[in-house]
Amino acid sequence: MIDTAGIRCMQLRGGSSKGAYFLAADLPADPAERDDLLLRVLGSPDPRQIDGIGGGHPLTSKVAVVSPSPDGQADVDYLFLQVVPDRAVVTDAQTCGNLLAGVGPFAVERGLVSATDGTTAVRIRLVNPSVSYATADVPTPGGRVRYDGDTLMAGTPFPAAAIPIAFFGNGSPLFPTGRLVDAFAGARVSCVDGGLPVVLVRAADLGIAGDEEPTALEANDAVRISVEAIRRAAGAAMGLGDVAGKTVPKVSIVSAPRRDGTVTTRTFIPHRVHTAIGVLGAVSVAAGISVPGTVAALVDVPPGTVHIEHPTGTLAVDIDLDGTGVDTRLSRSAVVRTARKLFDGLVWPRTGKATE
User: Fold this and answer.
1) InterPro entries, from UniProt (predicted)?
2) Fewest CB within 10 A of the end CB: N or C in the chain?
3) Gap between the Cα atoms of 339 and 12, Å rounded
4) Which segments of the chain have a pLDDT < 50?
5) Nearest CA among 57, 40, 56 for reference residue 48
6) Taking Cα atoms as reference points, which of 70, 58, 55 lies closest to residue 11?
7) Residue 354 CB neighbour total at 10 angstroms
């Protein structure tokens, strides 16, 4: 872990994001020391992250920390850390379903899970913000991770090998405010947590169509101000406290489908607009539009697969719910993602402290 010797790191494109993957043993055990190191590795605080390996955007400034799991239900633990590009901030307030796509391959590559000839099931315990479980089926022909394939995932330009991922409900309420509809900052919303806290709001209630380009929404001051006011009020009602400096909840704007999907989305994450949609954010949207009475129940959604349209394509989410109304719980969900190893080697952080 000495800076002059470099730190072992693998960078993968996981889903529609990109991040640095580390073994927990290769990072400082103290969270403050670890976070300072990661700021220097990725190049924060700097909007361009020019002095690190971050990409200057929340979707490319992410970290996965993986370790053997002490839990008999899992092979590895996965801690996600969001490194803010332009501020000296590292947060574990949420998990990331896109980087999760790379956790299985990384665990096999690092020898935490023994590969089989064919497909290797990697059982993963997601440890933030609360414990949940997932299983990733990693293609391992000949006992080696295969990254190349013909699955073209929306939000990425090139195909790769499919990695099916199944999530399992932890019994927590799907609607954390105890209501299907709330009113915050003059808008009717539905607060959903299917693995990631999300606030659903209709595009029409924000005075927009709902299919605008992400850059157009980011440039719309009136929408940004309204979204942030809704997010802060909803965050407190969802039990998240003061979310002014947090990355959750996300706000997902919903409207009618344009491309034969189930719903169209534009998601603030929380201040930039996602060029696709986060995996667990999509699960929350799918759950929210599947329960009658929410603001997002735009159509009669049959059980099974929900097709979430986003700025660069569509994400299919298989979802199983138990119960009705505010007593609805998430039983299981599943998506297909892809991942690709970009580099594996050593990374050298800049010297000093991140805030110096």
Assistant:
1) PrpF-like
2) C
3) 7
4) 1-2
5) 56
6) 55
7) 21
Residue at token pair 């010297």: 351
Q: Please report the pLDDT score of residue 298 as a whole number.
A: 61
User: How far apart are the C-alpha atoms of 52 and 211, rounded to whole Å?
Assistant: 34
The predicted-structure confidence for 195-230, as pLDDT tens digits, reads as follows 999 999 999 999 999 999 999 999 999 999 999 999
Query: Pairing mode, if any, of strands 197-202 and 250-255?
Result: parallel
CA distance 147 to 279: 19
- With contact defined as beta carbons under 8 Å apart, do 308 and 282 qualify? yes
As a dihedral over the C-alpha atoms of residue 264, residue 104, residue 343, residue 4, rounded to 10 degrees, the angle is 120
Instruction: Retrieve residue 339's tokens.
Output: 């991942």
Angstrom distance (rounded) from CA 61 to CA 42: 7
Separation CA 142–CA 211 (nearest Å): 44
Q: How far apart are CA 282 and CA 168, in angstroms?
A: 15
pLDDT tens-place string over residues 119-160 = 999 999 999 988 899 999 999 999 999 999 999 999 899 999
pTM: 0.90
Q: In terms of Cα–Cα distance, which of 208, 205, 207 is closest to 190? A: 205
Please check whether residue 20 is in contact with residue 11, taking contact to mean a CB–CB distance below 8 angstroms: yes
Pairing verdict, β 263-268 and 304-310: parallel
